[in-house]
Amino acid sequence: MAKVAIATRQPAHAGKSLGGHGVSLKVLEPASRMSLRARPAAVAALSKAIGVTLPEKPKSSAVKAGRTVLWLGPDEWLVIDEAGGDPIGDCASVKGLHSAVDVSHRNVGIAVIGPNAADTINAGCPQDLSLAAFPVGAASRTVLGKVEMVLLRTGEDAFRLECWRSFSDYVWGFLSEAARDG
Amino acid sequence: MAGSYRISGQGRLTPAKTARFTFDGKSMTGLAGDTVASALLANGVHLVGRSFKYHRPRGILSAGAEEPNALVTVSRDAARKTPNVRATVQELYDGLTVASQNRWPSLSFDVGAVNDIASPMFSAGFYYKTFMWPKAAWHKFYEPNIRAAAGLGVAPDQPDPDHYSALYAHCEVLVLGGGAAGLAAALAAAETGVRVIICDEQAEFGGALRYEKGAVIDGQDGWSWAQDVVAKLAAMDNVTVLSRTTAFGYYAQNFVGLVERVTDHLARPGRDEPRERLWQVRAKRVVIATGAIERHMVFANNDRPGVMLASAARTFLNHYGVVVGRQIGVYTANDSAYAAAIDLKKAGVGVAAVVDLRDNPSGPLVDEARALGIEVNHGRAVTSVNGSQRIKSMTVQAKGGGAERTIAVDALLMSAGWTPSVHMFSQSRGKVAFDDATKRFLPGTYAQDCVSVGACNGFDSLEDTVAQALEAGANAARDAGAKSSKGVTLKVEASEGWTGGMLGSGPGAGAGTTVKAFVDFQNDVTAKDIRQAVHEGMRSIEHVKRFTTNGMATDQGKTSNMHGLAIAAEALNKDIPAVGLTTFRAPYTPVTFGAIVNHARHGLFDPTRKTPTHSWAESHGAVFEDVGQWKRAWYFPRAGEDMHQAVDRECVTVRKSAGLFDASTLGKIEVVGPDAARFMELLYTNPWEKLEVGRCRYGIMLREDGFIYDDGVVGRLAQDRFHVTTTTGGAARVMNHMEDYLQTEFPDLDVWLTSVSEQWAVIAVQGPNSRDIIEPLVEGIDMSDEAMPHMSVREGMICGVPTRLFRMSFTGDRGFEVNVPADYGRAVWEALWAEGQKHGACAYGTEAMHVLRAEKGYIIVGQDTDGTVTPNDAGLDWAVGKKKTDFVGIRGMTRPDLVAKGRKQLVGLKTKDPRTVLEEGAQIVENPKQAIPMKMIGHVTSSYWSANCDRSIAMGLVLGGRDRIGETLYVPMPDGVIEVEVTGTVFFDEKGDRLNG
């Protein structure tokens, strides 16, 4: 076994970036991701275990120490860890009813940043992305053109977009086209 | 001056800014800001096209979006060619090429004009009567010839090189229309701070202020006021101002479609600029300020070039500085046309006479016209005009008849009154109501959160319009949640008030006449046609419309609907509201396919999904096939191999040594929770409670009706955790199916479903050497037969990364499926490939996968099943838990039809000639000598050449198939009948020894 070369991680579109009219796109670094489902009784214990209080307000998120938790449904969260942690391992000892599934490699993260970031996303996303309706920290599972995505507002002019790995070609292509439109 | 009909000191265009264009090859000059229509008129051109049916010469009727006549083809280059463009809407730019339509060989000499002489043949409903016999001639002769003779422009024959964009937008108040009403409403709404979007189809805002001279608002003339308001709105952060933007459709819950024409007016569009941008706006409140459209008068030859709407002539003069003639006549039933006569007279144009149908026209406009020395003929009508390609004179007669007087004119301006534009209101599903006093349909009952203001709401005076619009704008903002309310007031100091008008045909074109008095110009419908429709039994306006095609052209009857309705009502001897109004439908004006499709072209038409090892397969010569949205490696031809040879080699190699196959596209669902096994019991036919941790089982999923829905191997990773696989095509719908049942039927279960289809790359390693290839790379898993028998799953490490290693087989040989996190897929594949090379293994594609599984009789759901196949039909009774009392489909399975004898069953088929490969989908019969149509008793579902069996193999669904094993059946094909023997479905290694071989 010692002779075997360790497999290297080869994410889709690694390092890709593009500048458009008032917007830039960048494929984000690989991260650990967890799909977390839980009954209300387990929320407190899970929050403690992962170190971030699970948000319970629709379309919201919480972030702490490189770990972001996005509310996706009444019993569903997406945890994104960019600090090299192991959210699945952190949940292992929690007794309350929950399901923690590793989806680290399922998604590709893309940053959309700039004054035209919202318009670029709105080319294919029907949600109201004004700051009033979708403030910094807002999160939603929604669509971009013909595919599903998870959208997180990380700043007034900045979004993190997560899509499934095999849809990343389409999403990147769609955003690149939309970014042409100033 | 750009054009000899351009008058110095008139209009708002800049004389120095010229733009060259060609019309039917002739070079002309216009001004920046011109439309094609104004530029042509400036050059003295009135004849711009031929009509749809009769090929009659046609000119320019209007100055706006309602134009039915002046349809031209505009082109930028060979590929950028747009037919049927309204010359009154297309803005001029330097280098624009314009061509007239529906004429041959030329606009002035058109062979098709014979249709005009033969017009009695083409009266209303001629389609349905004349071309019925013989029946076969319709497709072959009548239809193609009628299509060639009728019609308008020709569709472009090259791909559209432009790109189109799209944007979803949200606002509190959306204002449709940027005339005085729209601007006032937008201003009042915007001042409260809420988000406002205002759009207008014109290049510049202002609406009717474009031609009205009398308006003074807040001390400014109307047009200047409008431009100032637009500038003010555009400078506000909460306002989006969209010119050249048409609201074309009003859908549910205040969802409004707008199309913005971004570059159609530019001589040199930027590379990144989309030609058009589709806006899909969700508004809390909508203010409809769409104005009114002037109607023409219905009299003989009212379609001749030179005859136009009075407001159009006024627009050409007051905005574009173009006079439409040197000596004009006016025919009206309404005050507003007097303003046109006055403006033209003051600009130095001869006004021969105003002919007013009313007996006693009065008011300031009439007085002013008289004061300017314009002859006013009241109680009289224009009964015809003379001149074909341009009018020369008008014939005037008293209403009741009598002596005719011919007056020389080169243009005739007409107005039958104004029709409120209730299109958007009606599209919102609001109900219009007929106002008997003013003989017009107005917004009645609202269906959505919108309000109509101004002329489209029946307001005739500017003062009332602005006052109502201000209030409506502020109210809309307040109702949409505006916190503040900053009152806006506007003082209307002067305006033009218009009253009067008439509906239907005028004198000389009434009942009993046969003159060509056009109601619908674009579809060549005359007053006589509408009466004929009534005469032939049409009673509903919907029938009259379809019989005559009145209002069914691309202009949607903007100028014609009310006249058509009035004529039908008169013929039916009914009131207008009793006859009804036809429905207004989207789009308001034609919308390009490009705008609708926008980004969804080429690679963005549909997502193309690729697996983590796609690039490896590509670099190793794989030929790919489309499986849903996925690209899957189909086969890996080596130099000199065709598909057949490659697949044969792959199939043989897998059974001789081993093969690597990318199975990443399989759907994968992680089922987690204390009730996971109970849930699996309910969703699959198989038993799961007793499946040990670390073991796998082939599962079948049914629909409620008892038919097979999906299948796949499921591994139990822990007491409360299953790794479920689905078919590639079933991935999304199986997940939805499971979630649906979980949420609606079994919400009491403590279990959750997570799609992990894309978390795991799956590398199938199949064949006798498969274990030897994998084992050296694996850590923490004992892969011996004792420790890891067939149908088991282990978690451990491969190449230093986590794996879920399944021992399972879709080939019948010893096999494994290596699951690794997707980003490691390519690296692990390469490591396995390197090991495989030591054993002479190959990479194989989906075709070999299909052959190998067919050799073993393994079904593919969707190929060997079609949604009407039960587990028993497919020979899979063994997979149904006999002791189970409940699962989805258990009751469906016992329906009488599903347990009756004589169902189609899956069997093997061996051709008598082993070299003959059946065609999938071919029908099977008992007796090939019976008369056609033969009784078909089944069909071939899978068929391949099997190199391992050295013969063809096939499966099929055959009536009572399992009882026919050993029988000979027949497959009739175009080039002969193929004899087949019915067999079992396993063609290779019947005992199954090789699973451990």
From TrEMBL, chain A:
It comes from the Bacteria. The keyword Oxidoreductase applies. InterPro entries: SoxG, SoxG_het, TrmE/GcvT-like. The keyword Ion transport does not apply. Signal peptide: none annotated. One of its GO terms (molecular function) is sarcosine oxidase activity. Keywords: Oxidoreductase. Its EC number is 1.5.3.1. Pfam families: SoxG. Gene3D superfamilies: Heterotetrameric sarcosine oxidase, Probable tRNA modification gtpase trme, domain 1. This is Sarcosine oxidase subunit gamma. It comes from Aminobacter ciceronei.
